[in-house]
Design goal:
The structure is a homodimer.
Chain A lengths: L2 H4 L4 H8 L3 E5 L2 E5 L12 E3 L2 E3 L7 E2 L2 H8 L4 E6 L3 E8 L2 E5 L7 H10 L2 H7 L3 E8 L17 E9 L8 H11 L6 E5 L1 H17 L4 E6 L5 E5 L1 H13 L6 H17 L4 H27 L5 E8 L1 H13 L4 E9 L2 E9 L1 H11 L3 E2 L2
Antiparallel strand pairs in A: 1-2, 2-3, 3-4, 6-11, 6-12, 7-8, 7-9, 9-10, 12-13, 14-16, 15-16
Helix pairs in contact in A: 3-7, 8-9, 8-10, 10-12
């Protein structure tokens, strides 16, 4: 079977699509990955060693649970927690475990970590044609900064088991049992509901998550075929604060969408007058205070950067730094220690555009708008 | 002389530009107007009766007064108030007084009002080749809603006298004297300063305006040739509230720019910790509360609209309604009264996109983002 068959495309359509794939390699193994969403094939889809690792689909979102849930679902759904980390797909290709990020890049750090955290060989012995999908969470990772979980360094939480080529999900109950059997940590399951019950139950679940600073929920039909997500106010405001730390690097659309979500949630969750004002103040603080901190930092001569810490065997950290170099990322090393044989590295990814723009406005640059 | 000469363009360049002009007419007089900014010619430039009415230039802005003022100016500048109304240019063409809005449209309402408010004939007898530039302010007008001035219905405030064809400004002192002589109300002048003095004085002027809910300042070289503007926090937050009343009609970029201004102003004006938080809360309330009101209104079956009231002789109000009809604007009449021979009409301009989008999200529409 050829790639186009595995992707379910005609040879002609695949020829067009093939140009959109980027060539990449990991430890001498060449692979091709699709860095953007396309109509027929998910972002992050990888062609490697004659097989396909299908991208993880974008999960649609509703702004109003009350109407969105019955619109999207006509049968039982499982409600699970949506975690704030980074999405990985783990597959075994020609005997090697590889961990792919959302855009289909093999991350050496994650590839190493997931094998330390999950008994991957046992998983793939049982499920050779599947991929294990989950979230890497915790404070010590090279990509995200959320720190609302009871995780010291880094952890893996499974949320899906999919056919590697077709992307079809295992039913929720079967997947949860499979992970349980193999001792693989999973996202929390809040319950299985009829759509009308879910409309009743989800606002409370979301409120509970919000109070703990968590991200939100993913609802899916129990066969795993259809999904829908919804996020907490804490997540919306956290995203705004992140975006306005680097105001000129994150799209206006990014911030706008999150503001809109807060508006609809306030109406649906029937905020009192005081709760509304409190939410508004939270939104304002999320936008303004991080931006002010960044303007002041640049004014004092600092360069903006996104700080991460990773902890791993020295060779794994080396591989990660090599990996960043290959991607032409600019990294500043801030702290580099050894702790019990592990290398603990704190580094910043330089955020160029916001640094430069803020600098130029502070220098009196005139805006023609 | 032909149009291209009057615009200072070669015949060839004018041929290209001519295609961008829109054909329009006012009371049987045909004119052509440039609805957008172009490299060589200002938006709102009008070709009429063999002459040119040059568009009012976009005034550049700085985000930081301290560095922006010395960047833009190397000599004395006049600091005047920037008003929150709508920009008009008044010219006499073949004996008729016409009032042009920013985009070069002859507004029948404004054309009438400006003649009631200003002795235009005396002005143009003295200055036949000039145009009188100013702001229409006050609560009763068909375009803007700011109501922070001590104006009952509508008023005109002059801020420039320009050569109609070249757009060259009269020097500030001469212009103020000319208006004074003719009894034409003008924008306030705060003073004439060397750039270094202006850096000292403008923050206090801006703070004073902010406390009164006013818009901001325009600085210009005393010869009128170079300009720079700066707005208050009240204006920035007022704009945010306006934009988020109709969140899907106003660009994300519109809101983003105003958020950025608040960030830089907070740093430059050395807000205390408490002032920062207060500014942030104001920003959050400006964004969220009007959006929530709009979502609730649409949820209750209302259509969003921008409400205006105008007061004028009945034939003038009729002409305005005809004018809106010609522009294909959808207007809902909300109240229509006669007061002392004047027609007092309250109407809403329908805001289509936000109404429809909010309605669709309330109906459970799924977002793929």
């Amino acid at each position: 079977m050829e790639y186009h068959d595995k992707l379910g495309l005609s040879r002609e359509r695949f020829v067009d699509l093939a140009e959109q794939f980027h060539d990449d390699s990991y430890r001498g193994r060449a692979y091709r990955r699709l860095p953007d969403y396309r109509r027929s094939v998910e972002k992050g889809t990888v062609l490697v060693g004659g097989t396909v690792v299908r991208g993880f689909p974008k999960i649609p979102r509703c702004l109003v649970l009350d109407e969105g849930i019955p619109q999207q679902f006509d049968r039982e759904i499982a409600v699970e927690e949506k975690l704030n980390g980074y999405n990985v797909r783990v597959a075994r290709i020609e005997g090697d475990i590889l961990a792919f990020t959302r855009s289909g890049i093999v991350c050496p750090f994650t590839t190493h970590k997931v094998q330390a955290l999950v008994d991957c060989d046992r998983f793939f012995d049982r499920h050779p044609d599947r991929m294990l999908c989950g979230e890497m969470i915790g404070p010590e990772n090279p990509y995200t900064t959320a720190d609302c979980y009871d995780v010291d360094s880094i952890a893996f939480r499974a949320f899906d088991i999919r056919d590697r080529e077709s992307g079809d999900s295992m039913p929720v109950a079967e997947r949860r049992e499979a992970c349980e059997d193999l001792g693989i940590s999973q996202v929390d399951l809040f319950g299985v509901y009829e759509p009308t019950e879910a409309v009743e139950s989800t606002p409370e679940i979301v409120d509970g998550l919000d109070e703990r600073g968590r991200e939100g929920i993913v609802m899916k039909t129990v066969d795993g075929s259809q999904q829908l997500k919804y996020t907490t106010s804490a997540a919306n405001q956290g995203d705004l604060a992140y975006a306005f730390t680097y105001p000129f690097d994150y799209g206006r659309a990014f911030a706008f969408r999150r503001l809109i979500r807060e508006g609809f949630q306030s109406v649906e969750f029937a905020d009192s007058e005081a709760e509304r004002r409190e939410r508004a103040h939270g939104v304002g603080e999320s936008l303004l205070l991080p931006m002010i901190d960044s303007i002041e930092a640049v004014g004092e001569g600092d360069r903006l950067g996104e700080r991460h810490t990773v902890r791993a065997e020295p060779r794994v950290v080396d591989a990660l730094l090599d990996h960043f170099r290959e991607q032409s990322l600019s990294i500043d090393i801030e702290r580099d220690r050894r702790v019990e044989g592990q290398r603990v590295l704190t580094f910043s990814k330089q955020i160029q555009r916001s640094t430069d723009k803020i600098d130029s406005y502070l220098d009196g640059t005139i805006v023609k708008e």
